[in-house]
Amino acid sequence: MFLKHLKKMIFPLFPTSGDYQQAESIKKKIPWAYPWAPVGEGGKGLIGELHREICEKHVLFEKKVIPIGHGIGNDDVLFKILPDGYYAVVHLTWQGKENSPIWPCTVLFKDLDDWLKNGLTKDKKWHEKIRREVRKER
Question: Looking at per-residue confidence, does 80 or 96 come out higher?
């Protein structure tokens, strides 16, 4: 009986094959640019890591998410929150359970367009600016 109850609590948090198909469709719509790239097959482990790190007061606690992209050279992950359609960029700590609801650091976006405009595009411009400055110093 306990195991049945536990399964009902845990498995709704993990994406279905239909959710993964939806994620693949979303990835194809995104004009990926440095420092972001689509999550590959290893992305499934990111869901487990997120749920290991968050405490009960974290904004994503008991939320069903699916990884869409990851930051290149950092621990940022773009998740789609199912089924409400919000997106979240989460900076995973890889340090196990966090006690504070502010960790792992999470920025929410109302939809994919919001992330494209205020996440991807801003990150791309910031990295381009840094590259130009580094070139000037050489």
Answer: 80
